[in-house]
């Protein structure tokens, strides 16, 4: 029994040792396999990184080679261009700009439109935001690279800015950090030698509305009423006055009393986009969810349809014929311009009303100018009233507001005071002339009176200075000038010979 117990214990110990040894060997094998796998993984990762690195280096090398070739070609063309005479440069630049305007620019616009359509169909809003940020970052990266090579490209950028010859373009390039304008002392675009080569002016400065093709086509669109998407409804209400018997409905006649009204409705179709782009009031009404934007209809009361049609024509084409318009029509147009916040039309109407200032319209135009705060028109009317003070005696003057009547009276009183002051100045000048004549007589009489020399020492001194001054004048001018004239010159010059000589030559 003791032997069996000892055997069991030894067998259990040996079994434990064998199991422990087997487990440790298995763990060692698994550990070796794991290390082997990690080693293979590291090798593959390093190999992949190396491959990607090599691929990136190849792409950068290809980009560098392509940029180097293009830069060398550009420098070679620039060298050839710089050797050409100015007469040869002009047609070449004009040809290149025409090719850019007629061929490359439309193609670029078509590509951008196609790209916009593709992006709109393919990408959602989040994807579009990502693409926009990516493209803007690429552009920023390109601008940063250009800034890093600014010392090399500085001469070319300056020549390009001179060729374009526009302040906005130069300011944009300077804002991007590609051009240094601190040392730029030019004050005018015409100072550059490339001023006459500015063939892109038509792309930067809009033409006057009277010569604009776009304005003409917009006006034609309004007159033909093509593709309109809204309407103006102008309602005119007229009182009927006396009783009128209407037989037009058949049956018994219908009597209209004095409080009945005759209503006329005129409709003028238009285009929301044009009106919203040209007028802030219509932009708020048609694009901000108001009732007008839903109904696509704007109701206008107490406005002449012809005048409102002229108002819309101005919004479409930017100009209006003033020669055929009367004072009332210009005033109504000015009212529409003020109501719908069209400042350009207001200035045009104000300029047109300047030509209508006369005795019949001056006071009315003054009230209109005060109502719409037209300072130019108001000054013109006040200057007219300064020369026509009789207008304040009419009935229209009494109907004006008190502050306007006070301004008119102040202007007329200022004119009267200026007239009185000018007459008083003439009287003073005449008095001074008389005093000079009397002084000459007194000086001539004092020369013959010896008692005055003794009694008045100052007069004797003045007499001596007068004699010295006359002697000096005689030495320069000669004996041909009468003594009375010499005395007058000496007194005017306060006995100074040089000033007296100047007076003499100025008078002669």
Automatic annotation (TrEMBL):
It comes from the Eukaryota. It holds the Pfam family BTB. InterPro entries: BTB/POZ_dom (IPR000210), HBS1-like_N_sf (IPR037189), SKP1/BTB/POZ_sf (IPR011333). This is TD and POZ domain-containing protein 1.
């Amino acid at each position: 029994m003791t032997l069996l117990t000892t055997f069991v214990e030894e067998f259990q110990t040996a079994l434990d040792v064998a199991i422990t040894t087997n487990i440790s060997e298995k763990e060692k094998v698994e550990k070796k396999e794991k290390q082997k796998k990690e080693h293979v993984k590291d090798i593959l990762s390093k190999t992949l990184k190396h491959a990607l690195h090599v691929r990136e280096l190849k792409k950068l090398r290809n980009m560098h080679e392509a940029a180097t070739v293009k830069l060398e070609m550009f420098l070679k063309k620039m060298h050839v261009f710089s050797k050409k005479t100015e007469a040869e440069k002009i047609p070449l630049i004009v040809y290149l700009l025409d090719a850019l305007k007629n061929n490359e620019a439309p193609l670029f616009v078509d590509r951008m439109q196609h790209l916009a359509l593709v992006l709109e169909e393919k990408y959602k809003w989040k994807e579009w935001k990502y693409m926009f940020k990516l493209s803007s970052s690429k552009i920023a990266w390109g601008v940063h690279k250009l800034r890093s090579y600014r010392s090399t490209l500085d001469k070319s950028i300056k020549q390009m800015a001179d060729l374009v010859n526009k302040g906005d373009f130069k300011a944009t390039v300077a804002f991007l950090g590609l051009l240094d304008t601190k040392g730029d002392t030019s004050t005018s675009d015409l100072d550059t030698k490339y001023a006459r080569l500015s063939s892109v002016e038509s792309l930067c400065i809009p033409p006057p509305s009277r010569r604009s093709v776009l304005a003409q086509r917009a006006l034609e669109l309004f007159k033909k009423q093509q593709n309109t998407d809204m309407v103006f409804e102008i309602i005119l209400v007229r009182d009927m006055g006396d009783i009128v018997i209407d037989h037009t409905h058949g049956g018994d006649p219908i009597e209209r009393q004095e409080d009945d009204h005759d209503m006329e409705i005129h409709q003028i179709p238009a285009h929301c986009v044009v009106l919203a782009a040209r007028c802030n009031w219509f932009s708020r009404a048609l694009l901000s969810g108001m009732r007008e934007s839903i109904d696509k209809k704007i109701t206008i009361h107490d406005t002449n349809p012809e005048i409102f049609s002229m108002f819309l024509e101005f919004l479409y084409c930017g100009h209006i014929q003033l020669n055929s318009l009367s004072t009332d029509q210009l005033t109504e147009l000015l009212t529409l311009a003020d109501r719908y916040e069209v400042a350009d039309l207001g200035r045009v109407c104000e300029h047109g009303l300047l030509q209508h200032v006369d005795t019949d319209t001056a006071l009315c135009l003054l009230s209109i100018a005060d109502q719409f705060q037209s300072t130019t028109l108001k000054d013109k009317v006040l200057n007219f009233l300064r020369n026509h003070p009789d207008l304040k005696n009419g009935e229209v003057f009494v109907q004006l507001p008190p502050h306007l009547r006070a301004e008119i009276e102040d202007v007329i009183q200022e004119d009267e005071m200026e007239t009185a002051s000018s007459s008083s100045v003439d009287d003073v000048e005449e008095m001074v002339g008389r005093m000079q004549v009397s002084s000459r007589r007194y000086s001539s009489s004092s020369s013959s009176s010896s008692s005055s020399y003794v009694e008045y020492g100052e007069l004797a001194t003045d007499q001596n200075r007068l004699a010295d001054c006359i002697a000096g004048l005689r030495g320069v001018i000669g004996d041909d000038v009468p003594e009375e004239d010499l005395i007058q010159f000496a007194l005017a010059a306060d006995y100074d010979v040089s000033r007296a000589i100047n007076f003499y030559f100025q008078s002669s």
